[in-house]
Amino acid sequence: MNESVQSTLERKLEADFFARYPIEAGSLLDTINPSLIGPLLRDLETPTLSSLFNTLSPATLVKVLQDLPLEKVVDATKPIASTRVASILRQADETWRDTFLNALEPTLRADIDLVLSCPPDSAGALMDPRVMFLHRNLKVSEALSRLRGDHRRRRYVRSQRILLVVDDAGKLEGIVAIQDLALADLDESIGEYMLIAPAFVSLTATKEEMVELLTDHALSSLPVVDEDGHLVGVVRYEQLVAAAQETASADMQTMFGVSRDEKALSKVSFAVQKRLPWLQINLLTAFLAAAVVGIFEETIASYTALAILLPVVAGQSGNTGAQALAVVIRGLALREISSAHWRRVVLKESLVAAMNGAAVALTTGLAVYVWSRSLGLTLVIGVAMIISMSIAGSVGAAIPLVLTRLGQDPAQSSSIILTTVTDIAGFFSFLGIATLFITML
Question: Do 164 and 235 have their domain in common?
Answer without folding.
Answer: yes
